[in-house]
Amino acid sequence: MTYRVHPLLVGEAEVALSLDVFWSLTKESGRVAVPILAFLIEGGPHPILVDTGMRDPARAMDIHGLGPHRIRDGWTLEAQLRNHGLELSDVPTVILTHLHYDHAGGCDQLPSARFVMQRTELMAAAAPMGPKDLDIGGKDLFFDRKDVAGLVDDLWDRVDLIEGDTEILPGIHCVVYPNSHTPGSQCVYVETEEGMVSIVGDMVRKVELNVDRCIPPGLFYDLEAMRRAIDDIRVRSDRIFPAHDPAIAPEQLDNFGE
After folding, report:
1. What's this model's pTM, rounded to 2 decimal places?
2. Which of 40, 72, 130, 258 could covalently link to 6 via disulfide, CB atoms 3.0 to 4.6 Å apart?
């Protein structure tokens, strides 16, 4: 197989720079606009989508206590897939790196898809251990109840739970990194002509900070697990695709942040 990986711009969020670095080990402060990216894998027997973006910008602000979120014209999942000649119904497989609101929102838009995720991630998303009065993230720790409810009810017959490292197709592997960004975060490794591409979810937010300078991002479950995950991703990868780093897809972001 000769796979190609295309970033899809499906939203925008204004977030604190402290999310990018462990213990805020940076002189930068304030907030920054970041993309919300999904990824399309082509070149195999059928297209594969990695992550789906967010359900509703208002929920991100009202339920999770976050800053401004936006989905502009042309940034819907439907519009982004059409840029590649595909309809929502043309996608038979969706891999979810993890189940936070900005990665697993709107799965019900995809009428033909099966949804691949780690069992440990779904279990954590269904019963997160957040304090009920947490101002940011809330009791659900950035897992959206509507997204989780859809996966365990309306979409349940199309959910494929995997446990541990799994080959999805020859040249496409899911590798789980327990208790890194979330309890069941997984990286999707894709063999391409340019080498191994890793679609990392939020285990890496900025390649330059988190991988090149070895500073973990600010949100994780276990520091040692996160450090080992980043080290392993670095060794395996020729190119790393985080979900919120504008540097990986400048050609997609002509109007981003305006």
Report:
1. 0.95
2. 40
